[in-house]
Write a structure and sequence with these properties.
Layout lengths: L16 E4 L4 H8 L13 E6 L2 H5 L3 H19 L3 E7 L6 E6 L2 E3 L5 E3 L8 H16 L19 H9 L7 H7 L3 H19 L6 H18 L2 H15 L3 H20 L1
Antiparallel strand pairs: 1-3, 2-4, 3-4, 5-6
Helix pairs in contact: 7-8, 7-9, 8-10
């Protein structure tokens, strides 16, 4: 958070901005929990990441950016109070984002200070509630911001994988090379890109159009490869339906029709 370590994708010429607390993060946390009754498995702190899409920030002027910062500080303080011990705005990467450190310090029935992480964060449902809570809070002023897609299967690229890809130029068309570099999100992303063109075919599909028919055959081959892995296939359908706002059954039906056409063509 404080850029003590080298961050390869950060611009060292841009200074970040502390919004809550100061740079003595470790010392402040130690002081804040010194009177707490600690268990061996106590969760001392949780990190929150607050951000938005790159396009959102491109459209904001200086005054609006300042309001965005203040609205986030307001939300953090209203929901976590003094337990938000530190918050910093990172401006030195591609997209602005805020890192905040939450210490789950509370008093129990005996008026003892304890760390109770479950009061804030206890399972997926509570995390989802926080995301919805934040979207409502920030959306009061910024109407263009919407909550992220609930139950999305999207996965972030692991940091170590991202840095490895930065070290050398990668030919995105070289599928084997990308597969060797990544196991989860990156591989799925490649497969999604291969299938997305299918929807474009169905938008303007004409059975008399030989060019479109040929494209369909090629796309079916791509789909068949993905179907070998049932879990990835389900993820692809889910992501496509979310991105294009089309029910999954419609995508499945489109693929079924395309496959039937392919079979008929093969018979001919």
């Amino acid at each position: 958070m404080e850029r003590i370590a080298d961050v390869k994708n950060a611009d060292k010429n841009i200074k970040n901005e502390i919004l809550i607390g100061d740079s003595n993060v470790y010392g402040n946390v130690k002081e804040y929990i010194k009177d707490c009754k600690l268990r061996t498995n106590s969760v001392i702190g949780r990190e929150l990441l607050i951000t938005a899409s790159p396009d959102f920030f491109k459209g904001l002027g200086t005054a609006e950016l300042e309001i965005w910062k203040q609205e986030n500080v307001k939300w953090l303080k209203s929901n976590f109070g003094e337990n938000c011990i530190y918050s910093v705005l990172h401006k030195d990467e591609k997209t602005w984002h805020i890192h905040s450190l939450i210490i789950p310090r509370f008093k129990n029935k005996k008026n003892q200070l304890i760390l109770a992480n479950s009061r804030y964060f206890d399972g997926i449902s509570k995390f989802q509630e926080w995301q919805t809570n934040y979207a409502k809070g920030i959306g009061t002023h910024f109407k263009s911001l919407n909550r992220g897609i609930k139950y999305s299967k999207m996965k972030h690229i692991q940091l170590k994988t991202f840095y490895a890809m930065l070290q050398q130029k990668t030919n995105e068309k070289d599928i084997p090379q990308l597969v060797a570099k990544a196991k989860n999100a990156e591989l799925l992303e490649i497969k999604i890109q291969a299938v997305q063109k299918t929807l474009e075919v169905y938008k303007n599909y004409n059975s008399k159009n030989e060019l479109v028919l040929q494209e369909s055959k090629e796309l079916i081959a791509d789909i068949s490869k993905i179907k070998k892995n049932s879990e990835n296939y389900k993820d692809v359908l889910s992501l496509l339906s979310q991105q294009y706002k089309i029910p999954q059954y419609s995508i499945k039906e489109a693929i079924r029709i395309c496959e039937n056409i392919s079979e008929k063509e093969n018979e001919k």
